[in-house]
Amino acid sequence: MFFALIVKQLKILSRNPLELLVLLLMPVVLITILSVALGPIMDGNSEMLDLDIAVIQQDDEDAQLESFLKKANESMPIDEKLEGNIKQMLPVTLLLDQLTGNEEMKKFVTVKKLNANELKKARKSGNYDVIIDVPKNFTDEYLSSVFLSGSKPSLNVYLDEDQPVTSSITKSMLDYFQQQYSLLTQLSSSSNLDAAVTIPKIVVASDIETLDNQKSISSKIYYTFSMSVMFILYMASTIASLAFLEKDMNIFDRILLARIHPITYLGSIIVSTILLAMIQMTILFTVSHFMFDIQFEQFGLYVLITFLLAVVVGALAALLSAINYRNNSSGASNIFSAAIISILALVGGSFIPVSELSSFLSSLGKWTPNGAALEAYLKLQQNATFLDIHDLVFNLSMLGIGLLVIAFVLFPRRGGIS
Amino acid sequence: MEFMIEVVDLTKTYKKVNVVDHVNLYIEPGEIVGLLGPNGAGKSTAIAMISTLIKPSKGDVLLNQKSVINDQGSLREVLGVVPQEIALYSDLTARENLHFFGSIHKMPKDKLKERIEIVLQEIGLQDENKKLVKHYSGGMKRRLNIGVALLHEPEYLIMDEPTVGIDPQSRNHILETVKKLNERSNTAIIYTSHYMEEVEFLCNRIYIIDKGRVIASGTKDEIKSILSSEKTIRLKLEKPSKKLVEDLTLNPMLSNILAKDAEISLTVAKDTNFLPMILKLCDQHHVALNSFQIEEPSLEDVFLHLTGRALRN
């Protein structure tokens, strides 16, 4: 009998293409769109931040070094150690190392060396965000200005002003390089220059870090879970609307006349919602696994969080049904799907990671079903253990129990015309 | 005398208004009882209370002299209800609907399978049983609506306006089905309707209900005997005449005058020689009398006599 009530619910929902579209297709579409649209900002390795740099080196660094050492030998003795330090300070090599030597930088900086006669063509082509032209005798003049005397030579840098972001980043990088180089110069002039001194690398953070020193969360991971936990909430309003339809069409009366207790009926709403919510999440996660390469390494903990979230959704369906039945209107489920889900989604971080906005929103979000589940899923993606998510498990359990109690209290015990 | 279902002083009050007002009725095994009344008379509320779906403000419903107000299960076990609305899942087929409602009645699998076939045959949907209900005509839905209530072979069947909004052919099919069901299985039926002819065709006893109160009850003949000293005359005129109707209304020998287009119905005392007077009035207003018919009073006439209003407005 209980089984019949659940099978009926599954059949009805499976024959409702519009609802299935909202519950299954919409989240997949949104995960795709948001991952692509907001991924560059969240992931920090976007095409938007790609830097194509051309370096035109008109001087021969080795020959220039040779020339400088000859000149320097005339005014001061240069032993092997000092020669080694000077070799470490070749400005063009250092600059190229800084641009390409860092793994993080390699993700968005591409450096291409061009011949001296290609400068004009490169400037016209518009293929480069930055062109660095190293003039003849640059290395010799630069080293002379540092260790001997004379004016400091300049690099010719051409920036694409149509790309303000990349131009600004390049300026910052060159400024940083200049500062580091000046520091080295200072150290050398203070006779403290030593072979162990190296130019610090520029560190660029590109991923969102929600747990220190743990696996980063890409936009695909974030939106897979944030959209899934948001769209599971629609299951509650969908089932509550279908349940109200049963009252509106006097089917509920027929169910009562078959000597089904109202609480048994409410129980069937809860169990079928839990089942449907679990099926919905399984489908969404399976699609995400194959489409977005999302991995579920701690399978048991994912099942636990999904089950608890599904229980909360089942309790929500029961509560909305109880209010609908009491008011003899589908208003509660309509308001829930039209407004409350959006609020929960915002507070729970389904659109943006609100935990980064304020600690209050972060705490509040953990007491929304979607927010608590989202945080748990993201922590699991970062290889968290049960201990790391036990507070979220507690929140979900409390939400489920609380909503269930209210629903059982509110649900009317008789049917009939109002 | 022991009545199987007895309703005692049943009253339902909403916002200080008695929508059902001290209704008393009974139904014995095997009989068909009609609840006749206009829309809004309180029939559906009375039915909802009798079937234990809403709690009465006052009064009681007894099954074998035991109250069912706090023991709904005892009545629900032997009761089938056909609601006025189509209480079916439109996204399921007829067979799936029957299977679902049979399952929640805890019918054994084999018995349910057998009953589904019998019911589909009784309601004439055996060839269309795999169609989704949403693709059915109004008449087919009404038939399935009845079929669901018959599935568990109830001893008592309550039918609340089961023929509303369907074509005459489907209506006749339903009336025949109800009649056969009663004759074959001895199921007792409470049949509510505002169609006088349906109640006259089906019911052994009738309760006429208006504004929540039972205003007449008894067998067809007993109720009609309320107008036993009168007869109903139906006149067919050449054309409608307001003035003629006004003059007829002023005549103290005539009562219950209802005019519709060129047809007029009225009641007169049985021994009245009414014809010369009517011919004279027709002559005065230059309206030819095409025909006239003398009829025994109908339930419609009784309702008109008791309430001053027609049964169907």
What features would you describe in this structure?
The complex is a heterodimer of chains A (418) and B (313). With 418 residues, chain A is mainly alpha-helical. Chain A folds into two domains: 2-43 and 211-410, no CATH class; 51-189, abc type-2 transporter like fold. Chain A is 67% helix and 5% strand. Chain A has a four-stranded mixed sheet with strand order 2-1-3-4, with helices on both faces. Chain B is α/β, with parallel strands linked by helices. Chain B folds into two domains: 5-224, P-loop containing nucleotide triphosphate hydrolases (Rossmann fold, 3-Layer(aba) Sandwich); 229-296, Alpha-Beta Plaits (2-Layer Sandwich), CATH 3.30.70. In chain B, helix 3 (94-104) packs across helix 4. Chain B is globular and about 75 Å long. The two termini of chain B are 39 Å apart. The mean pLDDT of chain B is 89. The A-B interface holds A 1, 3-5, 8, 11-12, 15-16, 249-251, 253-260, 414-417 and B 44-45, 48, 51-55, 73, 76-77, 79-81, 83, 85-89, 91-92, 96, 99-101, 103-106, 132, 148, 152.
**What general form of chain B does the structure show?**
globular
* Poorly predicted sequence stretches spanning 5 or more consecutive residues of chain A: 191-213
Class per helix and strand makeup of chain B? alpha/beta
- Quickly name the level 1 CATH class of the largest domain in chain B: Alpha Beta
Query: Which stretches of chain B are low in confidence, meaning pLDDT under 50 for 5 or more residues running?
Result: none
Total separate domains of chain A = 2
**Biggest pleated-sheet summary of chain B:** 6 strands, mixed
Radius of gyration of chain A: 32 Å
CATH topology group of the largest domain in chain B: Rossmann fold
Which SSEs are present, and which pair or pack?
The complex is a heterodimer of chains A (418) and B (313).
Chain A (H helix, E strand, L loop, with lengths): L1 H13 L2 H27 L7 E7 L3 H15 L4 H9 L2 H10 L2 H6 E6 L4 H7 L4 E5 L3 H10 L8 E4 L4 H26 L29 H30 L2 H7 L4 H31 L6 H29 L3 H17 L11 H7 L3 H13 L4 H25 L8
Parallel strand pairs in A: 1-2, 1-3
Antiparallel strand pairs in A: 3-4
Helix pairs in contact in A: 1-12, 2-10, 2-12, 3-8, 5-9, 10-12, 10-13, 10-14, 10-16, 12-13, 13-14, 13-16, 13-17, 16-17
Chain B lengths: L4 E10 L2 E11 L4 E5 L6 H8 L7 E6 L2 E2 L4 H5 L2 E4 L11 H11 L4 H14 L15 H13 L5 E5 L7 H18 L2 E6 L2 H7 L2 E6 L2 E7 H5 L5 E8 L4 H9 L3 E7 L2 E7 L5 H10 L4 E7 L3 H9 L6
Parallel strand pairs in B: 3-8, 3-9, 6-7, 7-8
Antiparallel strand pairs in B: 1-2, 1-4, 4-5, 9-10, 11-13, 11-14, 12-13
Helix pairs in contact in B: 3-4
